Amino acid sequence: MILASLEKWLQRDVKPHVLRLEHADEYPKDMADQMAEMGLFGATIPAEYGGLGLNATTYAKVVEKIAGTWMSLSGIINSHLIMAACVMRQGTEAQKEYWLPKFASGELRGGLALTEPDAGTDLQAIHTKAERTGDDYIVNGSKTWITNGIQGHCFALLVKTDTQTEPRHKGMSMFIAEKGEGLTVSRKLEKLGYKGIDSAELAFKDYRIPADRLIGGVEGKGMQAALGGLELGRINIAARGCGLAQAALDDSVTYAQTRKTFGKTIGQHQAIQLKLGEMATRLQAAKLLTYDAARAYDAGERCDMEAGMAKYFASEAAVENSLEAMRIHGGYGYSKEYHVERYFRDAPLMCIGEGTNEIQRMIIAKQLMARNPV
After folding, report:
1. Same-domain check for residues 146 and 36
2. What is the mean pLDDT of residues 120-133?
3. Residue 58 neighbours by CB under 8 Å, 6+ apart
C-alpha cells in the first residue's frame, strides 16, 4: 500500500516538476512537506515513536522508487533518517522519547554532520572540538557537504571531546545539535548534479550545546554511532543506484522502440540490444545485492560488508547505465529537455557519498578475511 501510494504521488505531483526544479536548483519545499505528511521522515523510526516502522528492505524499495523519479528527494529523507538511526541505536531512553517523535513527524528535520574540509573518508582526522563547561559543551569547528544544511533544523554532529586519547576514535562523540546562536550556514555548495537538495558548509563558533544532547550520554561513542548510521545510509545509496539505473533502462527501452534508423527501430539493431541486455542484468544484480544487505540489517547482523557490496555495485551500475542510456539516446541524451543527462550527472555522486567505492572494496576485503580466518 505504501509503495502504491508513493508511486501515485511521484507520477502526479513530482515527475511533472522535476526538470524545472532541477534546472533552477530550487529546493522542493512543497514536496518535502508532502513527504512529511506521508510519514516518510519517520520511515524507519519505530511506530512506538510515531514512525512508520518500515524494515530496511521495504525502505530500500521506497528509496528506489523515489530515486527513479528524482534522486534528490531520496537524499532529503536519507540524511535525516541516518540522524534518527544514531539516536535509535545509541541514544538513551530519554533521548529516544524526546527526539524520535519530532524526527518522525518531520517537525524537526536534519542530517548528518561528519565531513570536514580536511576530513572525509578518514573521520578520525576531524578537528571540530567540544569542550565540557558545566552542564554544556562549547563547540568550535566546521563541517562541509552537509545535506539539509540549509533547510534542516538539527544535525547529528560528530566532534572530538578528547584530542589526546589513542586510538583516536575513542575521543570522538556525537551530539544532536539544533540550529541556534553560534551555528551558522557559511555557504551553499554548488554541485554538478544532485540539484534542488541543499548541500552546505556549517560553521561552529563558541556554539553552546547542553550535555543532555550527547547521544548515549557517554563520551567516546561517536564513531560507533556514525558507523551504525552509515550502514543504513549505504543501503539507501545502493537503493538510489538501483532506482536511477532502472530509470535509465526504462527510458532506453522506450526510446529504442520509437526511434528509427535505416528503416527500423533502433531496438532491432543488435548493438542496441546488447546494451539493453547488459543494463537489465546489471540492474537485477544490483537489486539482489541491495535487498540482501537490507535483510542482514533487519536481522540485526553486522552488515558493513553486505552494505558495502551493495553500495559499490549499485552505484557503479547507475553510472554505467546512465552512460549507456546517453549513448542510446544519442543527441537527445545530451539535451536538457530529457532526463537522461540528469541521470548522467547524478550517478557519480553515489560512487563518492557514504564512503567512496575504493573504501567499500577495502571494507569488503577486510571483512572477508575477518570472517574466514586461516
Report:
1. no
2. 92
3. 2, 3
